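Appendix B, Record 12. Input sequence as logged:
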Amino acid sequence: MKPIKLLALPALLLSLYGAPLSLTHAADAAKAATTAPLGATAVPHIAYEKYTLPNGLDVILVEDHKLPVTAVNIWYHVGPANEAPGLTGFAHLFEHMMFAATKHVPRGMADQLLEGAGATDSNGSTDFDRTNYFDTVPSNQLELALWTHSDRMGYLLDVLDQTALTNQQDVVRNERRQSVENAPYGIVQEALYHQLFPKTHPYYASVIGSHADIQNAKLADIKDFFTKYYGPNNASLVIAGDIDKAKTKELVNKYFGSFKSGPAVPKPDVVTPPITQERRIVVQDRVELPRVFMAWLTPSAYTKDDAELSMAAHILAGGKSSRLYKSLVYDKQIAQDVGASQGSNALTSIFTIDATARPGHQPEEIEQALQVELEQLRAKGPTEKELERARNSIETTMLSQVEKMGGRGVANLLNEYNQYLGDPGYLAKDIERYRQVTAAGVQRAVDTYLKNQSRVVVYGVPGKPDLGAEVPTPAPGKVKPAPGTAINADEPWRNAVPKAGPAPKIVLPQGKSFTLANGLTVIHHYNPAVPLVSSQLVIKSGSGANPLAQPGLSSFTAQLLQEGTATRSAPQIADDVAQLGALLSTGSGTDASFAQLTSLKATFPQALDVLADVVLHPQFPQEEVERQRASRIGQLAQQRENAGAVAARVEAAALYGPQHPYGYIQLGTEAALKAASRADLQAFWQQHYLPNNAALIVSGDIGEAELKVLAEAKFGSWKAGTVAQSVAATPQTTKAKLILVDKPGAPQTAVRLSAIAVPRATPDYAPLQVMNAALGGLFTSRLNTNLREEKGYTYGVRSQFQYRNQPGPFSIAASVRTDVTGPAVSETVKELRAMIAKPLSSKELANARNSQVLSLPGQFDTNASISASMANAYIYGLGLDYYTTLPQRFTSVTDKQVQQVAKKYLQPEKLIVIGVGDKAKIAPQLSKLKLAPVELRDAEGNVK
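Logged structural output:
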C-alpha cells in the first residue's frame, strides 16, 4: 500500500481550558482532575483497556459510540532500527509484502473487500522504529478487518512467493524514484541522513533504502524477517470506536488467540556515534532555489530534553509567529520558507532546521541568518510569550488529532505510547511534561545539543543530481512455484469471508442555517465531542472570477488578508492567532475563497474576532503586497521543480487556453503577479467579499444560540453590495494530442491524460463517481491494479473528475518509470476502452457503489471535515439535506448508467496526453502510439 510516514507530533495535548473529551468516563475524569495542576481544567482522558493474549499480543480497546465506525490499528515493533547491514529499506519493503496474498485471502481480495465495505484511512506505513497497518471500517465490518489483519500475521508465509516479491520490488523502487529522486530536494534530504550516520547504522538509509538493496532482497530474507519480527509477541493491536468490548474480546481471541508466539525480539543493539566535528556537504539537485539543512543528533523519544527540543523547534519555525519566519521570511525576505522539527525516535532523535532561499539569494546568506537566530536562542532563551504560543498551538493541533479514532488519531496515539513507554494511558503524563517546560530548560537544551561542532550542514543547490549507477529492473520471467512455510496450524473456517453485522444507520451531519440581515448565511453543526471549534468563512468567488488579464488575482487577494488590517499588523495577526492556540489560513480555489479557523472552544470568540478582522478590514499595505508578490514568484519557481505540479499547470493551459480563468493555476503567472497592483487587490475584495456572497460555516463545541450572538457581533456590521459578475469565457483547447515537457535525466515521467468533462451541477454525478471508483478512484481500481500491482510501472495511479461551476477536467495522473512511459499510456487507454465496451460485473459494480456509500460516515469524523463538506454544499447550491440523500443516489446507480457515462465522458480519442520527463527517452516510446499533433511546452505551460 502507500506508506505514510506517521511522525509523532509533540505530545502536549488537549485544552487547559475546555471540557473533557466525550470519550472520558466520569470516574476517569474525576481521577484526572485530582492530578491536574492548580488552576488548570481536568485533562481529558481516553478510557482504554489493555490486556495481553497468552501468545504475547498486546490488545488495547477503546469504546466510543460517537460515530458508527471502528479503527483497527496494529503496530509491529520493527523498522529500519532492526535491519541488518546490506538490507537497507528492508522493513519498508516488507511492509509492502504484507499486502500480498495470504493463505485464506487471495491477492487483492482484502483491499477489494475493505474498500467495498466502506473502509477509510486504510493503509500501512514504516517509520524508523515500527511498522503499522490500519483501517477504519463501519462498525459492523470489524470482523472483516480482524480477519484480514490476522491472516497476514498468521498465514503470510504459507503462500508468499517470488512473484509477489518481484512485483513489490518494482513498486518500492518506483516509490523511491517518485519520493526521493524525482522530488525536489529528495536526494538532498537523503544525503543529510548519510552525513548524520555511518553506513552501518540502521537510520543511515532514511527508511526507503537503496535501489541495489531493494533489488537484491531474496525471498529467503523476507521469510526470515517475518519469522523474527512478525509474531504476535512483537505486536500491539488497538481497536477503537463503536465496539462492544466483551464481543470484541471474543473476536480478538478467535482471530489471533491460536497463533504461536514468535522468538523473543531483543532490542536493537546499536551505538550511535556522536558528531564531534561539523560535517558539510553540497548536493546538486534539479531545483531552482537553494535550500539549507542543519541537523543534530538529540535525545531519544520521551527522554529528558525531548520535550524541550520540541518546544524549541516550534519557537524557531512553528508558523508565522516563529523567530525564523519573522527574521528570514518576513523581515529580511531572503527565504521562501523555513522549517524546524525534533524528529523523535528510539535510537536517537534528529533535530532539523531547513530554509529555502528566495530567488536571488544564496545558501551562505541563509546559513548566516539561521546562525544568528540560533545564537540568540542559545544566549537568551525564549520569552514566556513564545513558550505560551508554542504550547497553545501544539495543544490545538493535538486536539485535532484525537478527534479521529483512525488514521493518525486515537488508535495510533495509544499504539505509539504503548511501544515507546509501555503505557497507552500516558496522555496525562505527556501533557504534564510539556507543562513543566521552562524558558531556562529550552535554553539549556539548545545550548547543550545544538552546538555548531555537533551538526551536519547540507546545501541543496541547482545542478545535475548524482543518482548513482543505474540498477537494472530485471525482465519479467516465469517463476516456478515454491512450497510455502507454515508457522501456524491451518484453520479451515478462515476460508470463509466474515459476514457483516447489522448495518448501522448512516446519519450524516446536515447542519442548521440562519441568515443575518446583511445576507450572510450561517451554517452550524453542533459537535461537543472535543472542546474544539472549526469554522470557515466562504466567499463564493474564486479563480473563476479572475479578470482574464489577471490570473492569480483571487489567490493573491486571499493571501493578503492575513498581512494587515486597520488595527493589526501582519506580525500582530500571527502572534494573536498563536497566542490563542488557533490555526488560521486563507486561500482561494476555483469557485470560492476562504478563511479557515480552528481553535479551542474557550478561545473561539477571540479567534473569530481575528478571522472577522482579516476578512472585513484588510488594508493591503503596499509593503506587504511587495512581500507576498516576491513570495508568490518564489512559489512559482518551486512549482517548476516539481514534475507533477508542472503536469497540472500544463493541463490547465492546454485544456482551457489563455483566455479562460481555468487556464491557469491558482498562483497565476509571473507576468500577472508583477503587474498586479494594490488597487487591483482592493477592487477584487470590494467586489466579491460581501456578506450576500458569503457563508460562515461552524462545526464544533458551540451551541446555536451562542453562535448567533457571536455571528451578529462579529459580522452584523458587514455591508452588503453588488457582486461582480464573472466574465463569460469559452475554452480554447489545444489541437495537440501529445504534449511533452522536457526534464532531462528525470528517472520518472509525470503522465496525465486529460479532457474537459462536466460541471458540479451535472445530473450524472452519482454514476460518474461510481464509474470513476472502478476505473481509477480506488486502490483496487482497474488502472491501479494494472499499472501498479500487475505491471509494476508506477507507485500509484489515480483518475478523477474535478467538479466546478463550469465544466472541469477529467484526468488520469501517474508518475511512471521512464523506460515504460509508452506502455503505461497504452495500458491506460486500453483500460478506458474496456470500461466503455462492457458494463461492470455485478461484483465490481457493488464494490464501487458500496465504497461510495459506506465510507461516508468516516469522512465526517472531524470538525474540519464536517465544515468542509457543508462548505462544498453551500458553494454549489446543493442544499443542507444533500448528504442525507446522497447515499440513496449512489445506491440506485446501475451498471447501464455506469456504461452510459463511460461512453459519454471518457472518449479516449479526445484525451490529451501530457508527459513531463526526459524527452530523449520518452518521445520515441510515445511516437509509437501515433498521437498527433505533438506540442512541446515549457514548465510554465507555454508552447515552445
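Residues 147 and 254 are 9 Å apart (CA to CA).
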